[in-house]
# Entry
Amino acid sequence: MNYFESTNATPQYAVRMAQTLGDVRQAQSLRYRVFVKELGADGPLIDHSAWLEKDDFDKHSEHLLLLDMARNDGDRVVGVYRLMDSESASIAGQFYSQREFDLEPLIKSGRTLLELGRSCLHADYRGGAGMMHLWQGLAKIVRDRQIDVLFGVASFHGTDLETLAPSLSLLHCDYLAPRDICVRSNIYEALDRGTVWDRVDAMKQVPALMKAYLRLGGFVGDGAYVDYEFNTTDVCVILDLARMNQNQAALYGIRNDLDV
# Structure
């Protein structure tokens, strides 16, 4: 079992790419803790005996890790992003998101794409500086690789569309992507649920990470995808650097004035 031991030490954050199979296993262990134990996900490739959440895309992806170097339990990975660029997606056969969304508008745009996936933080590190450090590491990758568009699946917990109707309707009303980058869910569930909703209450239901993307100027694709194995309702979030909110993006070290 790879649960973390509690610690009262002040975190000493470091961000780097996974370099070894051991690094990847620590990332998969954290993913198991968050997605399987906390959120009830399941799937054919999840290794319950080893407590690893994994799939076939892992071997084609890079893993950006947030580590707490103050931990003394040997398992220092407390945050992760799984990254896949177009070249890796070509080798894998597709982006992970293509299982759920038609990405043709993005792929045919000719712009430099980077898919963000399996993002999670250990529960003890949420609401603090951890996510900021992880985002700053991601910002360096964006700069170094001259990325134009970030995208990926973002999830609501649960599969009851009526419960999620106010939030989904809010996303459709206020954050639907421009036509040139608007993807569509493969098994289409409309975001606009035709329901009366209160803006404040609807936004409260939106997961924190999704709200962070929206504050940066992110958009959502057309339609939701219900993932019953993972016990989630998914939307595709798209961050076009040329359209980002620069006041917010500056907090993470991301700019849209790159030579891209």
